Amino acid sequence: MATIYYDLSELFLSAGSKFKYYGIARTVLEVGYELANASADVRFVIFSPAHDRFFEITPRIGAASANGVLELNLPVEAKPIRLRYSHPNAHGLRDTLQPLMRRIARKVSLRRWRRSVPEGSTRDVDLEGQILVSLGRPKMMSDYLVAMDEAGVRTRFFPLLHDMIPLHEYAHPRQSMFARNFAHDNRIVVQHAEKLLTNSVFTKDEIEQFSTAGRMCSLPPVVSVPLAQEMRKSDEPINLDLPDTPYLLGVGVMTGRKNLECLVNAMLLLEQAGRPVPHLILAGAKRKRTCAYVDRPEYASIRDKIEFVLDPNQAELAFLYENALALVIPSFMEGWGLPLGEALWLGTPGIASDIPALREVGGDLAEYFDPADPRSLADIIDQLSTNLENYAILKAKIAQSRTDLRTWQHVAQDILVAVSSSESSDLEQS
Question: Start and end of every Glycosyl transferase family domain (predicted)?
Answer without folding.
Answer: 243-392
